[in-house]
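Hi everyone,

Forwarding the result from last night's run.
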Amino acid sequence: MPSPLDDLGKLILRLAVGGLMLFHGVAKVTNGIDFVARMVAQAGWPPFFAYGIYVAEVLAPALLILGILTRPAAMIIVLDMIAVVILARGDAITQLGQGGASWALEVEGFFFLGALAIACLGAGRMAVQKPGGLN
């Protein structure tokens, strides 16, 4: 039987992943995505893929925070983290952070695993969209 705190836990997880990811998106909106476009071009991917960063780091986090289309929004963040590792951070998969007490990809790992958990759990009842379906 679900605990009354289950929905609160889902909300906290959505706010953490969505809120923290939104900071990355705001930085892209403010400073542009030229560096992302260069990485996408160097990988041989279609140039329009660079603009997906706005969907993955602005729109999807906003949807998570609100609890609208939560599962698809979470999966967009999961795919974004896969792309980030492929394009920019693949060399760090087996490395420790500078101090040696953390994984070099702990931020990407947090977003990947947190978003994956949200995709599995859904938004819960503390969401704008009613539970069920893609929420």
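The radius of gyration is 16 Å.

Cheers,
N.
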